[in-house]
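Researcher: Next sequence.
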Amino acid sequence: MAGNGSGKAPVFVVVQLTGGNDFMNTIIPYTSSVYHDNRPLVGIPQDQVIPIDDTLGFHPQMGAFKDLYDRGMVGIVQGIGYPNSNRSHFRGMDIWHTCEPHEVSTIGWLGRTLRELDPAGENPLTGVNFGVGLPRAMAMPGVPVTSVSNLDNYGLMTGIQSRERDQALDIFKQMYGPAIGAGPVMEYLSRTGQDVLSGADLIKVAPERYQSTVEYADNPIAKSLRDVARVHTADLGTRVFYTSHGGYDTHANEVPTHPKLIGDLSGAIYDFFADLEEHDADDNVVMLVFTEFGRRIYDNGSGTDHGSGGGAFVIGKTVAGGLYSEYPSLEPTRWVNGEDLEHTIDYRGIYGTILEQWLGVEAAPIVNGHYEQIHPFE
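Model: Next structure:
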């Protein structure tokens, strides 16, 4: 096994920040006049930022995250993206999910990964998504994935089970039908759709086995990560977990909205790793937090519009914390389209880093090529 010396199978948790998280207000270039001049409304005052070094700092609501960073558990990937970043949410997220920037694909990068981790599809819990529907990242014909919107009700009553399955499949059809046509969607569902809930009987033991002194907050991302912890500590053989945190499309009202989101995220991730540590289940887990794109350098008087050059986080006990890649240049001559941060590392190289250095899976067939990797594992 690649990146983990515990003898346990390495586990990968993905947290998707849906809507395009504002990277410049997450990892803030707080000494830059360009930052403050271009963000008169949404800019964070220098004296409120939690410093990382003498140029960059965390958003003031990320104190819990800074604690993980100080413990050496957080790798900050600066300037993540890809050439000619697509500003559409749907297409932008699709590109991240499939590693296909030029054509629409039905096959997700984690679907391919799950096929490598469990070639015979023996365990319907090898991949588990918390949320309604199925992220395209995990979709691949013949690869079973269990999708759960409420772990406490899941699989306990046949009515809920069939209704939830129908709802999940309907959402899947609505999401992907317009892009790839009804035929391929129906073919995919006929082969895979019935597996979306096939892990119900297996997974329902997770809440019964779980006890913890960690008290998670009452918000969506905290509940989702608590569910991940409950299934992970039940030792059901899950290798890839997926969940998402919505609301990051901050064109308007960014000043009240973004601090709440990033604060909820920070606290939930802190509690999640505290929970795993309490269960002695934290030494084989790595988390990737990503979003489909960053936001523009200047604010629009209420929020920020779709941009590029975002950021991601690689988090875990085995991670060598610190800054990776380069923060996009704030020099105006370097701005993409005259208004965006440039990308400084390709997201497919970060996927490749996780695949090869953590999960022990060859990256090129999954990410469709060879890309520069980072080295965040001790």
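Model: Residues 119 and 243 are 23 Å apart (CA to CA). The first strand starts at residue 11 and ends at 17.
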